[in-house]
Design a protein that fits this description.
β3 and β4 form a beta hairpin. The protein has a 4-stranded antiparallel β-sheet with strand order 1-8-3-4, with no helix packed on it. The chain has a 4-stranded mixed β-sheet with strand order 2-7-6-5, with no helix packed on it. The longest helix has 22 residues. The chain folds into 2 domains: about 100 residues, no CATH class; about 90 residues, no CATH class. The protein is an alpha+beta fold and about 230 residues long.
Length: about 230
């Protein structure tokens, strides 16, 4: 978790604006920019100028829920941004994700005789619809990417590692410079931000160093060539 609390993050951003106090007279703009940056950071897949996707492991979560006989759906977790998978814990198997068009074409969804243990799921709004409609109370595990809880108290810290504290301040600075029309400051800050993020993403990628993709031989070395052409 972050080591800079909400008060410290706002103070660091305020420094970048020369300790201006007019941004806190009626609305806490420093706090708003910090929270916007934190939310933006945790819910995007790609950063400015970096041609690579990235997702925070800290934003992956799961929760359990129970089905109700005769009810075709369960609720989406309140903090869920994207549903990854649904696991039928009672039957020890994964459910298959289908499209909404496929789901509505399934026949007998409302009849008692067609109820059973769900094998498929689809999300619509704040619900996860199951097919067939459950005929019993079973336990499901829902895996999802979550939205971060925004900071409100001065002692709140982010759910990310401390190494991202400075990044959040830099992103908040970029947003504030953009809104205030400070183009030169924005350009310089974005360059520093991209450099800092690029270095951190390289650290996270070390978790995959033993994967098949990471350890595979470069195609240019195949076929007996000692050096790539």
């Amino acid at each position: 978790m972050g080591t800079w609390d909400y008060d410290r993050l706002r103070a660091e951003l305020k420094l970048r604006h020369g300790q201006r106090t007019d941004f806190t007279s009626s609305t806490d703009w420093y706090g708003r920019w910090i929270n916007n940056a934190y939310l933006n950071l945790c819910t995007r897949n790609r950063f400015w100028g970096l041609k690579r996707n990235f997702e925070f492991p800290e934003m992956e979560a799961n929760s359990s829920t129970t089905t109700t006989a005769g009810t075709a759906y369960v609720s989406v977790p309140t903090t869920a941004l994207v549903i990854r998978d649904v696991f039928h814990y009672t039957d020890d198997r994964m459910l298959t994700h289908i499209g909404w068009d496929e789901y509505v074409k399934r026949t007998g969804r409302a009849t008692t005789a067609s109820r059973g243990s769900p094998t498929e799921w689809v999300r619509s709004g704040s619900y996860i619809y199951l097919y067939p409609t459950p005929d019993a109370t079973d336990t499901l595990h829902v895996f999802y990417r979550k939205r971060p809880t925004l900071l409100s108290s001065g002692t709140d810290v982010t759910a990310l590692g401390a190494e991202w504290d400075e990044i959040i301040v830099r992103m908040a600075a970029c947003q504030s410079f953009l809104q205030l029309g400070m183009g030169d400051r924005l350009k310089a800050e974005k360059e520093e931000l991209n450099d800092a993020i690029g270095g951190l993403l390289g650290i996270y990628n070390q978790e995959f160093r033993h994967s098949d993709k990471h350890m595979s031989i470069d195609p240019s070395y195949r076929g007996g060539n000692e050096y790539p052409s």
